[in-house]
């Protein structure tokens, strides 16, 4: 019992830190008077989804865990399952869009420079619509939400795959469109980025200072995005594996104590992003990797008239 208490206390602390960290990002966004850059818009959208996971899911789980049973009834179970899946799916699809943006900016400059702020809003609208669609499907008859095996939280009813053909199609569609496809796009994007950066490092060294600054900005943004995606996938893939085994394996193939750990790891994923911002040395009031580098670019533009050679080369780009 003492070990369970310590585990729940740690999880509660994780939820509080996650809400504070992501809430701070949202607060600083509201406080800002200038327009947000596209990477900053993506960061804020990710913070909103992570904040949603923290404030709508964790309190229900913690309170029920202390009571050793689900306390909020069937409608509460469906609400908890919907919010958890909606915000989790939204986070993953946001990271997928970010990875594609990084891929275009680094590997296909022609398309990367074409992407503007209004394109970002279109992408964010797609993220929200995509997440709402898949999270709502279980509420309208295709699939369902059900309690977890340990009985103190709710999730997608993976066990429908063993009951009906409709249940199998539901589980397979969710796995493909809400995990395998987004994760595949993320992995492909960053593998191609790594290859491109390695192959073009010598070429970039011959560019003038402004192009180098822009290139360094894109690389820094890409590193942050890679860390965020790696943290998310590390947290959620064990849970996905356990869910697949439960859906298509033998009944009780996953012991209840084993299923608890991946669930707790997945539910703690919302805390990682504010920590990542600090690990990469972001000291700005707004938690976006643009800030520090953009300040350097501004300083360069203000002093560029002192550098005739740079001014001459940049005027011919």
From TrEMBL:
Keywords, alphabetical: Cell membrane, Chromophore, Disulfide bond, G-protein coupled receptor, Glycoprotein, Lipoprotein, Membrane, Palmitate, Photoreceptor protein, Receptor, Retinal protein, Sensory transduction, Transducer, Transmembrane, Transmembrane helix, Vision
A Pfam family matched in the record: 7tm_1
Domain G-protein coupled receptors family 1 profile: 21-277
GO CC field: plasma membrane
InterPro entries, A to Z: GPCR_opsins (IPR050125), GPCR_Rhodpsn (IPR000276), GPCR_Rhodpsn_7TM (IPR017452), Peropsin (IPR002962), Retinal_BS (IPR027430)
Keyword Nucleotide-binding listed: no
GO biological-process terms attached to the record: absorption of visible light; phototransduction, UV; visual perception
Membrane-spanning ranges: 6-30, 42-67, 79-100, 121-142, 170-195, 224-249
Main location: membrane
KW Protease (keyword) present: no
PROSITE patterns: G_PROTEIN_RECEP_F1_1, G_PROTEIN_RECEP_F1_2, OPSIN
GO MF annotations in UniProt: 11-cis retinal binding; all-trans retinal binding; G protein-coupled receptor activity; photoreceptor activity
Protein name (database record): Opsin-5
Record organism: Kryptolebias marmoratus
């Amino acid at each position: 019992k003492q070990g369970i208490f310590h585990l729940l206390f740690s999880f509660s602390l994780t939820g509080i830190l996650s809400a504070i960290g992501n809430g701070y990002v949202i607060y600083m966004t509201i406080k800002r008077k200038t327009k947000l850059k596209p990477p900053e818009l993506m960061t804020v959208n990710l913070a909103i989804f992570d904040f949603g996971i923290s404030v709508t899911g964790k309190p229900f789980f913690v309170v029920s865990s202390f009571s050793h049973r689900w306390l909020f009834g069937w409608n509460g179970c469906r609400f908890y399952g919907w919010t958890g899946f909606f915000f989790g799916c939204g986070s993953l699809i946001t990271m997928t869009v970010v990875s594609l943006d990084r891929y275009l900016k680094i590997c296909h400059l022609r398309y990367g420079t074409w992407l503007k702020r209004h394109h970002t809003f279109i992408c964010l609208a797609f993220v929200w619509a995509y997440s709402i669609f898949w999270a709502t499907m279980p509420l309208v008859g295709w699939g369902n939400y059900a309690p977890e095996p340990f009985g103190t939280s709710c999730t997608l009813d993976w066990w429908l795959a063993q009951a009906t053909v409709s249940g199998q199609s539901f589980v397979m569609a969710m796995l493909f469109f809400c995990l395998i496809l987004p994760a595949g796009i993320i992995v492909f994007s960053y593998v191609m980025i790594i290859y491109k950066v390695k192959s073009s490092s010598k070429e970039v060294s011959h560019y003038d200072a402004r192009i180098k600054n822009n290139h360094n900005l894109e690389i820094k943004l890409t590193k942050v995005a890679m860390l965020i995606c790696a943290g998310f996938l590390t947290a959620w893939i064990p849970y996905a594996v356990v869910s697949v085994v439960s859906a298509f394996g033998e009944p009780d193939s996953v012991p209840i104590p084993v299923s608890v750990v991946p669930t707790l790891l997945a539910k703690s994923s919302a805390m990682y992003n504010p920590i990542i911002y600090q690990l990469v040395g972001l000291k700005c009031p707004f938690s976006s990797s643009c800030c520090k580098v953009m300040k350097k670019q501004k300083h360069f533009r203000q002093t560029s008239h002192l550098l005739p050679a740079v001014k001459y080369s940049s005027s011919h780009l």
